[in-house]
Design brief:
Layout lengths: L8 H13 L1 H24 L18 H14 L3 E5 L5 H12 L5 E4 L6 H7 L16 E4 L9 H8 L6 E5 L12 H14 L4 E5 L18 E5 L13 E5 L1 H11 L15 H31 L3 E3 L11 E4 L3 H13 L21 E4 L12 E5 L5 E5 L4 H14 L1
Helix pairs in contact: 1-9, 2-3, 2-9, 4-8, 6-7, 9-11, 10-11
């Protein structure tokens, strides 16, 4: 049967040993899944979620009860005062832009303490090669960054900069983006936030939580972050939500973000749910399990590639902060072939052959493979990467471990 779907015998033989190697890591993932499942179930029950909250609204969606209930549940899970969960937030980058433009004003300074942010956010800020007349820089917002040191925060440099108290917002990106650094764990983020608060209690601390939700037992707002942002095309949508993103944090900050999304004076009061309430709730309910499947798929891929002689990050037995697995392939052709193999192992558009191309918000050509039920959903098995040395594939997702594993085996057979 495996040969019928294009998986080579020698690849299957390696995978059988890999399965034995990773059992301890898979058990740890299951434990985290159980903890986060309990967290979600408790939030649903404490919020009094009822059948009526599944109903939808159109038009203005004024003060819609279902939408409001979803935002209450998100706030409970993230241990925040409020949340904004909307289909009108199109992507993680869009939600981050709404947050930054909502909070920052001309003359304010934004500081990234995790090095350069993800490519598309660089364009939002105004520091990428691709210039935009609508960037934060064009509106007079200043930007600074502090690099990571040995894949961890430069605590002393952060402390000295925060002490001056002329920064409005500090940004942390939990996931690696298209970089070679490690993803940041909650433990490291908590240490950095404590150091900041020792010298500056007023600065707003924002965490880009994309790809990180439910990978660990806690979220950044549980260790002191003021506001977090993520996409429902990733972890918390679980492949069920077909659009949307979330922002969760302090009430006054959520109000500013809501006014940026809609209009001043209107804020959260409007915004139709457009038949998304059931998908949002069901996606959140399944998210701990789907995120666990994605992490297991990443662990399996890491060990498989490692055994085949490739450089991987993280290693199969390392602690993880997100669902992303990087595979250093060393050649443009190998990167392209691996991504094409992931596409061939997908349930949808398996006959499509992805090719590198120029994409909005990126400086390099990018190849993206994702035969997904929802266009661009990166919680479903997907793989992408910029066509630049050292030619790293960024793989993420897997709605079930079994499908994720089969996709990896197919890609490796192609490679």
């Amino acid at each position: 049967m495996y040969e019928k779907i294009g998986i080579k015998k020698e690849i299957m033989e390696i995978s059988e040993q890999v399965e034995k190697d990773i059992q301890e890591q898979l058990k740890k993932v299951d434990k985290i899944k159980e903890i986060n499942s309990a967290k979600v179930l408790l939030a649903f029950q404490e919020s009094g979620l009822a059948e009526m909250h599944m109903h939808t609204s159109t038009g203005y969606g004024i003060d819609e009860v279902g939408r409001n209930k979803i935002e209450e549940i998100y706030a409970k899970i993230m241990k925040t005062e409020d949340a904004l969960v909307r289909a009108q937030l199109i992507s993680g980058t869009h939600a981050l832009a709404v947050t930054l433009f909502g909070i920052l004003r001309p003359g304010d300074t934004m500081l990234s303490i995790s090095g350069a942010p993800y490519d598309t956010l660089q364009t939002v800020i105004g520091i990428s090669k691709e210039k935009s007349r609508s960037s934060l820089k064009e509106f007079g917002v200043k930007y600074e960054q502090i690099e990571l040191v040995n894949n961890d925060f430069d605590i002393e440099a952060i402390r000295q900069r925060a002490k001056k108290k002329d920064i409005k917002l500090i940004e942390i990106q939990k996931s690696r983006g298209y970089s070679t650094r490690k993803s940041l764990t909650i433990e490291k983020i908590e240490k950095a936030i404590k150091a900041i608060r020792e010298v500056n209690k007023e600065v707003i601390i924002m965490v880009d939580n994309c790809y990180g939700e439910f990978v660990e037992e806690k979220e950044p707002t549980e260790v002191g972050a003021d506001i977090i942002v993520g996409s429902l095309m990733k972890n918390l949508g679980a492949g069920i939500a077909t659009s949307g993103a979330y922002i969760a944090g302090k009430k006054e900050l959520i109000e500013l973000c809501a006014e940026r999304l809609t209009a001043p004076g209107v804020g959260k009061e409007i915004g139709p749910s457009l038949n998304q309430n059931t998908a949002f709730l069901k996606g959140l309910f399944f998210a701990p399990s789907v995120v666990a499947s994605s992490v297991k798929t990443a662990i399996f891929a890491s060990r498989m590639l490692e055994k085949m002689g490739y450089k991987v990050e993280p290693s199969f037995d390392e602690k993880r902060g997100d669902i992303v697995q990087t595979l250093e392939l060393g050649e443009a052709e190998k990167l392209i072939k691996f991504c094409q193999g992931i596409q061939k192992g997908s349930p949808i558009d398996a006959n499509v052959i992805p090719e590198p191309s120029i994409m909005a918000g990126y400086d390099d050509k990018v190849i993206m493979a994702a035969g997904t039920f929802t266009e661009g959903s990166t919680i479903e098995l997907s793989c992408d990467g910029p066509i630049r040395s050292p030619y790293i594939a960024y793989m993420q997702g897997g709605l079930t471990y079994e499908y994720g594993k089969l996709g990896i085996l197919k890609a490796l057979s192609t490679l």
